[in-house]
Amino acid sequence: MSSPSLGARHFDRGPRPYNLSSRVTPPVCSATHTVAVTESTPLRWDHAIGVIPIASAPRPRTALAPSEYYFPDAHLAEGEGPAAVGADFAPATIIEAYRAGYFPWPHDAEEYLWFSPDPRALIPVGGIHVSGRLARTIRQRRFRLTLDTAFGHVLAACADRLEGSWITPAYTGGYIALHRLGWAHSIEVWQDDLLVGGLYGIRAGNMFGAESMFHRVTDASKVAMVALMQWVEREGITLVDVQVITPHTARMGAVEVPRDEYLSLLRDAVQ
Predict the structure, then answer these.
(1) Beta strand pairing call for 84-85 and 113-115
(2) Is 101 inside any structural domain?
(3) Would you say residue 12 lies in a domain?
């Protein structure tokens, strides 16, 4: 069974999106101010569950050529629909989008759609919520976890949804290329030799953009999320983007922040 996506993907088309079909020179934009996330200090989850062992290590990162496309200032995006349309899913394009505050979300009528919702959902580093039952599951070590050993299988499992998926062949090709280049990562959850859960996302600087997750046995995707949050803290990642809040991510500690605040946090994370 697949879990809900890390970002609930429903939208109102809103104003006409910015067309990315032409390559342009970016204008000079004024700087934005940094606003801290003002959440209460969470309980330290690692005191109750310890560090979840993760076998293997992330792929080394290969430098990307500059993107051929410029994404407009996300502060100016309007409505809840796509903020930009066009471009492609080349590795440099996807990373440029994330750095600018956008994420891809293909639809049947148009594949190359880019969103920058307001508010934006994130999980504060150190702020994952672990229920007592989940803590017991983690302490029992029912699962074996790995990093970047089955990225393609995790992506395919996330796309296997009865209600359909935004994970198109072109999207898949772009993310697999990013994984091979060391920019996209997956956490895999195994029971014996079976892949029973996992998640994947993009790292740009000290930002991790969590895209989607799945589970085939109870709690497998939740364990993957807890392991992700431990890993990002060890890696010095300061921003974990989950795009749009859902009941599932809210229960695990996701919060909404205004887009302007998110973009300030993003600027600090990717500079």
Answers:
(1) antiparallel
(2) no
(3) no
- Domain presence at residue 262: yes
Q: CA 144 to CA 252: how far, in whole Å?
A: 21
Measured distance CA(233)–CA(240) in Å, rounded: 10
CA distance 22 to 12: 25
Q: Considering the domain boundaries, does residue 212 fall inside one?
A: yes
For the chain, report the end-to-end CA distance as a whole number of angstroms.
38
Task: Work out the average pLDDT over 64-74.
Answer: 95
239 residue type, one letter: L
What b/e readout covers 192-230, taking b as 16+ CB neighbours within 10 angstroms? eeebbbbbbbbbbbbbbbbbbbbbbeebbbbbbbbbbbb
* Per-residue confidence (pLDDT) for residue 36, from 0 to 100: 31
Q: What is the pLDDT of residue 21?
A: 57
Q: What is the pLDDT of residues 147-165, one digit of tens each?
A: 999 999 999 999 998 776 8
